[in-house]
Amino acid sequence: MEWIQIENNESEAAQILLKWADDKSNQDCEMPEECCGILSDL
Amino acid sequence: MIFDSLNESDFQLIPRYLSKPYYFYLLEKLKQSGVLTEEANLRINECLKMLLVILNSKGTAPISKAIDDVWHLMILETREYEKFCLSLPEARFIHHRSVVFERIEKGPATKESFSNSLKEKLSWFVSYYKNFGAFKEAVLDFWPLTKEIMKDKKLTLDEFNALLKSAAFDHSVRRTLAPKEDNLSSSFS
């Protein structure tokens, strides 16, 4: 499986998505409950 | 009908990675919870996608409780689960950890950790596209943050998939300056 770390990606699309993350983290500091996801203790 | 857009290839991970008894056990347990067969297949397949990608991630997966519940069912059959993990390309046991435990252990999120967490989840969606193709409407409920992004950015599903495709295939990797000249070989992030 290939993993793409978006912070290392300079495409315009990646920058649009990263801007969303920055904007979102300036508005809230908590994920909506249903968006929390899960963790694997790797 | 939301399932109309799906085809056989959308379920191809099931026969590839699950033994028949393990698959029929999952199907029966989900049926006992009121989940119909088609929906159950979809949940199992998305859970397999998550488990295939998670070993390359930093360890978090932005999935819904419905998929987490499938994972819990898989883990409960410990021998089969161990065999399954060892059959994956990475051949490593995948441990489970709850978000609640993480929060209690590490404390509430800061703005920086929240931002990093969101970026990690974006990496997930781009990696999903790279490995499995576009998100289909039928699976969006299992990846709830996709809907949050589309809502915030006012994107249709096609537009969202186009962004992921571009980030997955048209990316140029950012180069960072090496701190020392003799360290050039490791200067690519």
Task: Detail the topology: elements first, then pairings.
The complex is a heterodimer of chains A (42) and B (189).
Chain A: H1 12-27, E1 38-39
Chain B: H1 13-17, H2 20-32, H3 37-54, E1 60-61, H4 65-76, H5 78-87, H6 99-106, H7 111-132, H8 144-153, H9 157-169
Polypeptide structure, described:
The complex is a heterodimer of chains A (42) and B (189). Chain A has 42 residues and is mainly alpha-helical. Chain A has one helix at residues 12-27; one strand at 38-39. The radius of gyration of chain A is 13 Å and the shape is flat. Chain A starts with 11 loop residues before the first helix and ends with a strand. Chain B is mainly alpha-helical and 189 residues long. Chain B contains 9 helices and 1 strand; from the N terminus they run H-H-H-E-H-H-H-H-H-H. Chain B has helices spanning 13-17, 20-32, 37-54, 65-76, 78-87, 99-106, 111-132, 144-153, 157-169; one strand at residues 60-61. In chain B, helix 3 (37-54) packs across helix 4 (65-76) and helix 7 crosses helix 9 (157-169). The model of chain B is unreliable at 174-189 (pLDDT under 50). Classes of the chains: A mainly alpha (42), B mainly alpha (189). At the A-B interface, helix 1 and strand 1 of A face helix 3, strand 1, helix 4, helix 7 and helix 8 of B.
